């Protein structure tokens, strides 16, 4: 038999093989692609670096997004101490740990069976507020004197200290609706600030204590808003599709870092750390 072009059967087999390869590649791209998963931004007190969570690891980068460095293989919700020497974080067992800013000297602060999901240092560095099983707690910075502050039927979380340390803002979720509340640092005088049909959460005080940034979500999107510390003058800073969440002010009050989620599947989707001016302009992605 003379050599020539492949037979029809061979062509069909080649085509089938190509389709199989294409299907496998499509599966890998759509379902096993390493989506960017960045969250929990936290500014260093001098404003030069941002700690964040990436795929359940603790990372740190310069404030312009350069020099991204992994500190820990496991952890979430990093939070800088006010003096800039320590980072507190939550372990995979939902305990609070503290470490040096280079990842060394890791020390466990909590050791009970309660699950902790969020934390925040007090401005003077002596206390840490916690979200524990749907209530706000506070403890000394060494883990001692753990005290419960909220006793409601709602789910309370996301504590944020006012710059003078006298108040704590938080989100209270009840009947699928979240609102921003504020209370004294001892848990007294709990007052609702934002009351809308949207889900409001993630409060963050401006460094001068006059404003609170937060996220407000509908069924299909979430955006970053800002309001006066008394709840007045709500202003939307971000627009468009996707989920904008976890706002945190830079120490000088000029910028706000936040997280944006642009999709659920496929290349380009996932969560990224972004930064914008305090008025919502100049939104820039720091992580890919």
Considering the chains and any ligands shown, give keywords for the structure:
four-stranded antiparallel β-sheet, 46% strand, mainly beta, 288 residues, 24 strands, disordered N terminus, 8% helix, Neuraminidase, single chain
Task: Describe the fold and architecture.
The protein is mostly beta strands and 288 residues long. The chain has a single domain, classed as Neuraminidase. Helix content is 8%, strand content 46%. It has one helix and 24 strands. The protein has one helix at residues 8-31, and strands at residues 38-43, 49-54, 57-62, 69-72, 76-80, 86-90, 96-100, 107-108, 116-121, 127-132, 135-140, 147-148, 155-161, 167-174, 177-184, 191-194, 199-205, 211-217, 222-228, 235-236, 243-249, 255-261, 271-277, 284-285. It has a four-stranded antiparallel beta sheet, with no helix packed on it. A four-stranded antiparallel beta sheet has the order 5-6-7-8, with no helix packed on it. A hairpin with a 5-residue loop joins strand 21 (243-249) and strand 22 (255-261). The longest helix has 24 residues, at 8-31. The chain is globular and about 45 Å long. The protein starts with 7 loop residues before the first helix and ends with a strand.
